[in-house]
Amino acid sequence: MITRLLVANRGEIARRVFATCRRLGIETVAVHSDADAGLPHVREAGMAVRLPGTSPADTYLRGDLVIEAARRSGADAIHPGYGFLSENADFARAVLAAGLVWVGPAPASIEAMGSKIEAKKLMAAAGVPVLGDLTADTATTADLPLLVKASAGGGGRGMRVVRSLAELPVEIDRARAEAASAFGDDAVFVEPYVEHGRHVEVQVLGHPGGILVLGVRDCSLQRRHQKVVEETPAPGLPDATRAALHAAAAAAAAAIDYRGAGTVEFLLDARDTSRFWFLEMNTRLQVEHPVTELVHGVDLVDLQLTVAEGRALDPRTLGETYGHSLEVRLYAEDPAAGYQPQSGLLTRLDVPGVAAEFDLLNRPGLRLDSGFEAGNEVSTHYDAMLAKVISWAPTRDQAARRLAAALQGARIHGVTTNRDQLVAALRHPAFLAGEVSTAFFDNHPEVVDVAVDPRPAVVAAALALAEDAGVRRRVQRGVPVAWRNVVSQPQVTRFEGGPEVAWLAGRDGYLVEGVQVVAASPTGVILEVDGLRTSLDVHIDASTPPGTRAVHVDGPAGHVRLREVPRFTDPAAYVASGSLLAPMPGTVVRVAVTAGERVASGQPVLVLEAMKMQHTVSAPHAGTVTDLPVEAGHQVAAGDVLAVVDEEQA
Amino acid sequence: MSNRESMLTKLADLDAEHAKAVAGGGEKYVERHHARGKLLPRERIELLIDEGSAFLELSPLAGWGSDFTVGASLVTGIGVVEGVECLITANDPTVKGGASNPWTVKKGFRAAQIAEENGLPTISLVESGGADLPTQKEIFIPGGRAFRNLTRASARKQPTIALVFGNSTAGGAYVPGMSDYTVMVKERAKVFLGGPPLVKMATGEESDDESLGGAEMHARTSGLADYLAADEQDAIRIGRRIVARLNWRKASPAPEGFAEPDLDPDGLLDLIPTDLKEPFDPRAVIARICDGVSATNGQVLDEFKPLYGTSLVTGWAWLHGRQIGILANAQGVLFSEEAQKATQFIQLANQVDVPLLFLHNTTGYMVGKDYEQGGIIKHGAMMINAVSNSTVPHLSVIMGASYGAGNYGMNGRAYDPRFLFTWPSAKSAVMGPAQLAGVMSIVARAASEAKGAPYDEEADAGLRAYVEQSIEEQSLPFFLSGMLYDDGVIDPRDTRTVLAICLSVIENQTVAGTDRFGVFRM
C-alpha cells in the first residue's frame, strides 16, 4: 500500500495528485526547481525537496535527483504526472529498482509506445488503423501536405506541417533539432497530413482484470499542435465510430498488456467521421483527464493509485455517464502575437463560481485545476499553462455557455492570457455546431485575435487612476480631483501604446466625450453609452510605482490591460535608436554576428529561445552592429537591449 | 428672472471673462507659440502640478477694464507639486511676448504676498519680453520689488525656483538670478542683461544670443543655470524633482476625514437675491459650504451669542475637517451689538488659534442720531481693531453687498485677509450707487443754496444718473477683481473647495492667535 507519494512534477498536475492523496490519506512529497519554490504545489505538500536550478534538464528531468528526493523524504511511491519523466522508461525502471512503487505502466509498455515509429508498426499488427509511413525520399507531390513528427515526446513539439517537397529536408532537420532539445531524441517520422482532421482520444485503464474504456474525448482545438479546448463525449460521432474507437483503443492497450491510465490518440477525418487512424498512445495521465472524470464520475488518479498498488478495478464502480464536460487550458500567452509565451507576476487569478478544485462535482458546475495563484511569478522556463477550467453540464451547449461565462468573468491580471480567445471559441457558432477540427483557429482567425473595443476600458482606467490619485494624495485630501476655478484644457491620461482619454472633472462628475460617467472610484467605473449602462471593474496594480502601473479593466466585453506611461522621461534614459530589444524573456542560444560587423536588413542577428521555441532576431535595417551586450547562454528579460544596429546612411 | 437664472447669467459672463484670460494673446499668437514647440503657460502649469491635483488660479481677471488683456499676461495660482503646495507664476508669452504691464506687476506682487504670508515655495515659469515700455513709468520703479521679494522669500526659507523657457533678459534676468534654483531649457532660454545690439552700442563688442545668455552657456560657463533641460517637459520634470527634495513639511497635519455638507451647494444659486436690498440667511450658506454632521462633527454650526446682535451670525464650524470661526452678515446693517459681538468672537478665535471666515453681505454700520449717540463709531472701531490685530488667518468671501466701513470691519481687502474671493453677485463701494448719487445731489443743492444760485434740476438728474451708473459699474466684481481688490471671482458652488484649498495652504505655517490688540475704546 502506498503511504507517502512523491510527485515528480510541478504546478497543477502535482496539486491534482496531492488532492487525491489527501482524500485517500496518503502523505505527499513535492519536488521543485528554484523558480517554482513559491508555487502552491510546494506549499500544499507535506514535504518538499528542492531540485537546484531552473531549467527542466537540471531539475524535473533529473531522474536521479527525484529518486534521491524520494529516498530522503521517505516516499514509497512516485507519480510522474504528465510531461517531464512520465514517459521515460529508464526512469520508471530506476524507480522500480529503488524499491519504490511506480504509478504508471510497465517500462516495457512505455518503451513500446515511446517510439511512434515502432508503435505504429505494433498497432498495425494489432489491427488498429494507421497512416502510411513516408521519408524524404519516398514522399511524392501526391502525398502533400505532410506532417513531420518527433518520434519521442508529445505535445506537438518537433511537429511541422510541410506543403512543398523542397521544404521537407529543412523541416526534418528543424524538427530533429527541436526534438533533440526537448526530448533528447532526434528521431522523427513523416506521414500524410490530414487537412480536416479531428483529434480524438480514448481514455483507457489497464488493470489486472483487463482493459476498461472510458469514452472518447475530442481535443481538436489546437494551436501550434497543442491542445486548447478538450471535451467528452466527442461531438457528432456516429455510434459505430464510437464503438470502433473503443475497440481499437482496447486492442491497442491489450497489445502491450497495458496497466494504469493511458490514452490512445486517433486522427479522425472530420469530413468522414467513419475514418480514423492511430496516432500514438500516451502512457500516462492526460492533461485533459478532468472532463472524463466529471462525465464518468471517477477519480482517475485514485484509479491509477489502485492499479499501482496491484489491485483490480471493479468495472461496476465506473457507473453511469452523465452530461457533457468541456475543459479549456488557460495559457500565459498572447494569441494575437503568434501565441508568444508571456511571463510576469500574476497579480490576480479569480474564476467566479468554481464549485470544486481538483475534484469531482456532485452536480453540474465548474471545476478549476490551477497550478498558480495570485502572487506567483510566471516564468518562461516551463509550460505556459496557468490553469484548466472545466465545466460540466447536461448538454454540450450548456457546458460551453457556462465555461465561457466563467472565463469572461474571471479576473486574470499580470500576464496576458488566451482567455478572450477561449471565450470567443466557446461561443463560436461553428464550435457550438460541433464543427471542430485541428484547423479551427486557422479557419476562424476572428477567434485568434479577438477585437475588444478598448475605449470604455481606457476611459474607466483613466478615471480610476484619477480617483486613485485623489485617494493617495497627501495634501488637499477631499478636494475634488483635478479641480480648476479657471478651466483651460482637459486632463489627458495616456497609456502605453497610444490609448488616451481627455477628461474634465466637472462640478457634477467627470466629463468625457461620447460617454456619460455615472460613477467612478479607484476600483470601478460605471459608464453609460447610448442608454446602455456598463459596470467596469478596475484594478490598479500597485506593484510598480505610479507612472508605470498596470491597470486591469474587466467588463462585459472582456479584459483590457493598460499600462500608465510616465509623465516625464529622463532624457538620459532614452534607448539608443536602432536597438534590438528582446521581444520576450528567454535565453540567447546563438549570436550570429560580431560587434562592428556590417549587417544587411533582415539579416539574423541572434536567436532567442523561449518556451522551447526559437525566435530569430533580425536587423531592422542595414547598418553596423555597434553594441552587442549579450552572448549565447545569457538570460534576457523582455525589453532588454540585445544589440544596437546603427543605420547605414544612404 | 429667478435668483438662479440671474446668477447663471452672471456665471456665464464670468466664464466668458475667464475665457479671455485663457485665450491669452489670441489664436494667431497661440498657434505661433505652439508651432515653435512651446507650451502655453497653463499647459506648463498642468504638466508641473501633480496629476489629479487642484489648481487655484489667482487674480485671473487682473487688468479687467484696462487697456491690457484680461489676466495681465501672467498666470498665478497655487498648485500641488510633488505633494507640496507651491505658488506658481507663469508668464504668458502669447500676450505681447509676455511683457509686464502695470497690472502684471500688481498681480505678481499679490502672488508674492500670498507666498510670503502662507510660507509657500515659489516656482516661476519664465518667458517674458520684459517691461511694456509705454507704461514703464508704472513698472520700472515699483517693479524692482519683484526681485527683492524673491530673495526675501529665500531668506525666509521659502525656496524659489525659476524654470526659464525663453526670454528672460535685462531686468527679467534677475528672476533666475534671484532664485534659489534655476533650470534653463536648451536652445530656448535666453538670459542676459544686454543683448547683442545693446552690447555693441555699449562696448562695441560683437556677440550673439547664445554666448551672452544661452542655456548651455549658463549651465556650463556662467553657472547661472543649475540644470540644463533638454526641452520644456524636461525643465518641468527637473522642477518637480527639485520640489521633491525640498524636504517640505507642513506645520499642521492634514485632517482625518469629514462629511460633505448637509445641503447641496447647488442651492446657493437660488439663495442670493437679485436685488441685494433683500437680505438672506447666511446659515443657509454655511450649511452648503461647511462640513455636514458626522461621527466626528456633532453639529454643522455652533452659534455664538445667537440671541445677541442678531444681524451678525458668529459661530464655529468645520470645513474639510478643519475648525473655522465664521462671521456672517445676516441683516446687512451692523449695529453696536454686532460690532461688540464680532470683537469678542475674533478674540475667542485668537485664544484658540482658529482661522476666521468672513461672509460679507453688509451695507455698513448704522447711521443716525441714536446710533451715533450710542457709540457706533467706538463699537465699529473695536471691531476694526480686533480684525486688524487678529493674527489667525482670515478668509473673506464677498457674497453680496460690502459697503462703507462694513467692508473694513468684515475684513475687506485693505485688512489683508489671507485670501479674498468674490461671488458674481457682489457689490462693493463706499456706499450704494443710488445713495452715493443722492448724497452728491444733496451736497450740491446745499452749496448752490448757500450761494443763493438757482439749482439746475435737469443737470442734477443727469449728474445723478451718471454718477449712479458709474458707481454701479465700479462696484461690480469684474471691475474690483480687475483692480486686484480680490483674488478672484468664484462660482458660489465652488466656495467650499476654494476655502478648503485656502485652509490647506494656510497650514503650511503655524496658526497662532494673538492676545495683543489695540486699545479698545469702552
Explain this structure to me?
The complex is a heterodimer of chains A (650) and B (522). Chain A is an alpha+beta fold and 650 residues long. In chain A, strand 26 and strand 27 form a beta hairpin. In chain A, 24% of the residues lie in helices and 32% in strands. Chain B is α/β, with parallel strands linked by helices and 522 residues long. Chain B is built from 21 helices and 16 strands. Chain B has helices at 3-23, 27-35, 41-48, 102-118, 136-143, 145-155, 174-178, 196-203, 209-213, 215-222, 232-244, 268-271, 282-289, 336-351, 369-373, 376-389, 404-409, 433-450, 457-475, 477-482, 495-506; strands at residues 55-58, 74-81, 84-91, 122-128, 160-168, 181-185, 227-229, 302-304, 312-319, 322-329, 333-334, 356-362, 364-365, 394-403, 419-422, 427-429. A 7-stranded mixed beta sheet of chain B has the order 1-2-3-4-5-6-7, sandwiched between helices. In chain B, strands 8, 9, 10, 12, 14, 15 and 16 form a 7-stranded mixed beta sheet that branches. In chain B, strand 5 (160-168), helix 7 and strand 6 form a beta-alpha-beta unit. Chain B starts with a helix and ends in a 16-residue tail after the last helix. The mean pLDDT of chain B is 94. The chains are: A alpha+beta (650), B alpha/beta (522). The A-B interface holds A 465-466, 469-470, 473-489, 491, 507, 567-571 and B 18, 21-22, 40, 42-43, 46-47, 50-57, 60, 80, 83-85, 230, 233-234, 236-237, 240, 250, 254-255, 258, 320-321, 488, 490-491, 493-494, 497-498, 500-501, 504.
Q: What is the helix fraction of residues of chain A, given as a range?
A: 10-25%
Please tell me how large the radius of gyration of chain B is.
25 Å
Tally of individual helices of chain A: 16
The beta-strand count of chain A equals 39
Distance between the termini of chain A: 77 Å
The overall pLDDT average of chain B reads 94
Structural class of chain B: alpha/beta
